[in-house]
Amino acid sequence: MGHCTQSQFQPLNIAVLTLSDTRTFDNDTSGQFLEDALTEAGHKLVDRKLIKDDKYLIRSVISQWIADENVQVVISTGGTGFTKRDNTPEAVSVLFDRSIEGFGELFRHLSFLELGSSTVQSRALGGMANGTAIFCLPGSTGACRTGWKILAEQLDARHRPCNFVPHLKSVAE
Fold it and tell me: Are 108 and 120 in contact (CB under 8 A)?
């Protein structure tokens, strides 16, 4: 699997989507955490949106990013629980060419170590579509921190024995 790594860091173009019926950019601590974490890691924030938790609006925004030649990774926060308004898995999973089952499994494992059995209600998920990696995290800032523990490594071309970077579409420089 060592063929999936590089010796140098490769900055990625990442879009962040917050899904909430109540948050604004002023109080979106989860989206802000993700923006700060990815830029501190050396990646580029290419877009950030905050929209209502509406299945069709979610699909529309993420579909546009999947089709955008400059977006390599999408990270969403919110809408992965069990309330009536939590639509992220249903909205996004139909867009995947391939699911990344291990992402949700590992997220729930790490979350279990932090929260205990309540993590069974998390429907965090990941997948690939058109060379774009898509990761859907719960809405809490703590959950975004947990998810970033996984993503920081998997979005780093130097991480061994493998990472997602070689599977992402190339962007024009």
Answer: yes
